[in-house]
Fold these 3 entries.
Entry 1:
Amino acid sequence: MRFSIALTVICLATTIAGCGDGSPRNCTISGEVTVDGQPVESGSIQFKILEDGDLPGGGMILDGKYQTEVTPGKKKVIISAVDTTAEPDAYGTYPSLIPEEYTKNPQEIEVTGSATHDFHL
C-alpha cells in the first residue's frame, strides 16, 4: 500500500512539473548594443520569427544592455533607437541612430540555448 502511494505521488509530481507538456522552452538572451563604439542609451531589440512554430521575442535596450527570453531557432534581429537630441522631421520623427546598412539587412542569429549576443553596429 505504501509503495503504491509513493509511486502515485512521484508520478503526480512529474506531471505537475510539466515534463512533456509540449510547450517551447525559453532561452535567456542578453548582451550589449553599441553604435560606433558607444552604448545605445535607449531603444528596443526584437527577435523576429524565421521558422514555423517559432515565437517572437524582444525587449528594451537601456544603457547599451538588453535581456529577454526567446524560443530556440533562427531569428532576424531588429534594433531600433532614435536620436531625441536632434531635430525631428516635418512628421515629428526623430532620426535613427542605427546605421542604414543594418536596418536594410538585419543580422540573423541561431538561438540554441541561453547565451550572450552582442551587437556592435
Entry 2:
Amino acid sequence: MEKQNRFLAMLMFLLFAFFLGSFLVDQAEERIASFIVLFLGVAFSFIYLVQIVEASKFGFLIRMFFFALALRVLLAFLLHYFSQYGMFAEDDYYYNRVAWRIAQSWKGNYIGNVLADIDPVALGTVKEVAYGYFLGAIFYVFGNVPLAAKMTSCVIGSLTVVYLSLFTWEIFGEKPARTMAYLTACFPSMILWSSLALKDPIATFCIVFAVHKACHLLSRFSSMDLIKMGIALGILGLMRGYMFILVGGCVALSFALRKREHLVRNYAIGIIFLGILFFVYQYSGFGRAYVEQASFEQMDYYRKSLATGGSAIHVDADISSPGKALMYLPIGVTYFLFAPFPWAIRGLRQLVTLPEVLVWYVMFYFFILGMREGLKVHFQKIAPILSVMVLITLTYSLIEGNLGTAYRHRAQIMGFYLMFTAFGIHLYRERKGKERELVRQKRNNRFPVIPRP
C-alpha cells in the first residue's frame, strides 16, 4: 500500500510540475483555464464519490481515480501540444470549432449555421450538437480553450474507471474489483478516447451508469434509481441517439431475463418491452430517425460509407438482407473484437494500438473464463451487462467498415469485457493457489516431518 501511495504521489507531483512549467511559456491563459476546469471537475467528482462510495472502499477507489486522471491528463497534454491536431479523431477538431461558434453566437458575435463548412465525413458525428453546446458553455466562460475541453473528458473517463470498479465490487467481490480498477485505468484505448475532446467519455459513462442502475432495479426497485437511469439514458440519447435505442432496449430486455429458467418466454416478454420502447420514443420524436431507418439496406449503406481509406474492412461485404448479414456476422465480430491484426498493421496509428491488441489476445482467455463462471453463478446480476454488451457488439460488428472506427467504438463497451476479464483473472489465481496448496500437501504427506526426540 505504501509503495502504491508513493508511486501515485510521484505521478501527481510530475503532473503538477508539468502544469507549473507550462505557465512559463506562451498560451498561459489556456493552461490556467484548463487547470481551473480540471480543479472544478475533480472537486465535483470528489464530492460525488463521497456520497456514493462506502467508507471501506473509498480510500482505494479515490486513489485509483487520481491515478487514472493523472494518466489521462498527461496524455491529453502530450497530444495537444506534441501531435498533429486530429491525429486520432478529426471530430475533436470539428467539435472545438462548432463549440466556439456556439459560444460566439451566445455573445452575439456569430450569426449563421454553426455546422457550416464542416467536413462531410465528420458531419455525421458532429451534427448531434449536444456535446457542442456542452463545450460551448466552457468556451463562453473561458474563451477558445480546446485543452480545457480535454480536461472534462479526462475527469469523466476517470469517473468511469471508479464506477466500473464499484460495479465489479458489487457483483464479483473485492479482489476482482481491484484488478478491474487497474485494468480500466491503464487500458490504452480507454485512456486515449478519454483524453480527447469527444463525446465518447460521456456516452461511455452514461452506458455504465444506466446499466448499473438497471442492476440495482433488478435486485430491489427504487424510484430514485429509475429516475437516475432515465436521466443517464436521456443524456446518452443526446450524445448518440442510436445508443439510446440500443441500451434502453437492452435494459428493458434484461428485466425479462432475471432467471435462466423459461428463457423462451422471457425473451418473448423482452421483445414486447423493446417494441413498447421503440413505439414510445418514436411517438415522442426522440430517436425516430433511427427507428425509421432501421433496415438491413440502411445498415449496408452506412457500412459502405465507413469502408473508406487505408483502414477499410471488407469493402465489398454485403449485409443488405438478414441472410447476408448473418453470413458476415462472424467476420464482423472477429474484426470488432480483435482488429487491427498484428500481421496487417498499416500506418502509425495502427502500430500504436499493437501492444494493446497483443495484451487483449492473452486477456481474452480470462474473459472467457470469467464469462463462463459468471453465467453459472451470477446470471441474474449480470443480465443487463450481458444484454448491452452482446447487442452493441453484434450491431457494431455489422456496421463497422473501418478499423479506426471499430477501435474507437470498442472502447465504449470494453469496460464490460474487462469486468469479466478481471473476474476470470481472479478465478485463475484462485485455481492456481489451490493447485499449489494441493502440491504442498502431497509433498508433506510424502515426506512427513519427523519430530526430534
Entry 3:
Amino acid sequence: MKILCLIVCFVALQLSAQTNISVNNIKATGNVAANGTVTGSNIPATISGTGACVSQFVRILNSGLPPTCATVGSGDLASSLALITPSIDVASGISLNLSGSEIIGTTLGVSGTSSFAAISATQVTNTGDELLSSGKVVKWNADTGLSRDSAGVVDVGNGAQGNASGTLNAANVTGLTGQISPNVAGGIDVGTTALPFSGIRIGAAATNNVRVTATATAGRTATLPDNTGTIAELNLAQTWSAAQGFNGGMTTSAGSLMTNYNGNSTAGAGILSIVGYDRQVSKTTAQGATTLLTTGAGTTLYMVMSGTACTTTSSGATVQINLIYTDTSNTVQTVSGASSICTTLGANSAASLQFSFMAKNGTAINYSTTIGSTPTYDMRIAIIQVGIN
C-alpha cells in the first residue's frame, strides 16, 4: 500500500506540473481548475455565471456573470400586433380588442376597428367609425340609451334595445329631408296642452310662406272638414264653388253689400233686405203706433209691404193698417191701406198696403191699425231697404 500511494502521488505531482494535457475524457464530480485554455469538442461557447431575473425576461446570457435582464418592449412584439406601446393606460394602434372592463386614464387613440366589452374613459377620440354589434345599445346611467330600430332609424329610450320611450330635447332641429310622423296613425298631437307651439310655417320659399297660428283664451278645438279644398279667410275675396249653408244666420257690417247675384251686378243696397217686421195674430183691438225701424245715417229709399185679414165674421167690423214715417223735408207722413171688411169672409175681408217712400235719416218708421166695431184679424208688415243713400 505504501508503494502504491507513492506512485499515485508522484503521478499527481507530474500532472500538476504540466502546462498542456491532452486526454480523451475528463470526468469530475467537483471543480476543474485550469490556468490556460481548455479545448474540446463538447465544451459550450459560454458558461453562464450565477444569478436570476426577477419580474423580467433574460435578455443576454453572460459568460461567468449573471444574465442581462430586461422588460419586454414594443420592439420584442411581432409586427402584426402593431402596438407602439403595450401599456393599456396609453395605447394607440390600428386594432384594439378588449374583452373585459378596462379603465383608461388619459387618451385612447384607435385609427382602425376597436372592440370593447366594457370601457371607462375620460375621453375617447375616434378618427374612424363607431361600430356597435347587432342588438347593442349606447347607454347612459342604465336608464337612457340609443339603439338601432331598423335601417336608418334610431330609437331614444330607456336603455333597452329597440325601446323608443325616451324624449329628445334640442334647441333646434334643422336639415330635415324626410317627414315627421307619429309611431301610429292618429296617435299623438303636435305640441301638448301645457306646451303648445306658437305657430307652424308652411311654404316653398325662405320668405314666401304662411304662418298658421292662434290666440286662445281657453282650450279650443278647430275641426277641418272631410274635404279637399281651399280654406276660406275673412279678409280675402273668394269665389265659393259649392253651396254654403248658415244655420246660425248671416250678419254683414254696414256698407257690406252683395255686388253680384246670380251672375248679375247689383246696385243700390245690392240684395233687398227686410229691415223691419212685425205681426199680430187673432187680434181684436187696435194696434197703437209701433216702431219698425229707426233709419240710419243716410236718407234713402224704402218699401213697405203689409196685409190684413179678418179671421172671423163680425157684422160691420173693419181693420185698416197705417204707415207713419218722416219724409226728406222732415214732415211726418201717414199712409193708410184699404180696409178689410169682416161682415163676411171673402174678397173684401183681406186688404194690403204696398208702396215705396223715402225716409229721412235718423227717424222712426212706425205702423198702427185702425178698427171699426169688433173685428178679429191677423196682420203682417215688412219694411224693405232699397237704397243706401
